[in-house]
Design goal:
Number of strands: 0
Shape: elongated
Helix content: over 70%
Order of helices and strands: HHHHHHH
Strand content: under 5%
Structural class: mainly alpha
Number of helices: 7
Amino acid sequence: GKPIFTATTPAPGITFHALAVIVRFGFFFALCYYALPPLTHEGVDILLPTFVIPLVAVSMFLRAPLARLLINEAGIISCALCGANSLQLSQSEGFVFPCIFCAFFVCREADRLWANQAEVEAAALRQGFTGRLQDAASSVAQDKATIFEAIQGLEQDVERAIEILIVAGMTTPSLRSSAAS
């Protein structure tokens, strides 16, 4: 069969970045544990709902790349501080929640990379796209003729569908798998 080329590649460096989040968590944990005096029990109890949970909530709504990065870093540092203080106060059960939230920020880092990749790919898909099928180009003239013959009479619907896919980010794995089935 004929090879089909897509504009989608896996987001590079996800594993590296996830490991880097864990390393940063470990670094800040050690820094907080050995360099900072412990907070009181009340201080630890206030830290998680005051800093980490709002960061989790805010991270769901901000789309700017720098904002995503800063939220992830603030979340990692807050989790490390919470965990270090829990252990300093001999509250080993209090260490579980910061680790769970750290796992959340590992996932957010992967999500940040996928979002950056999707933005790059969407821009590449839009490049040269006029929104009109008659402006479309093809590396094989026969392919273009075959496609236009197949969609004859449906041009406006196809143009609209292409625009929706570009806006939605057709390059996401879930949309690609939906389109493949």
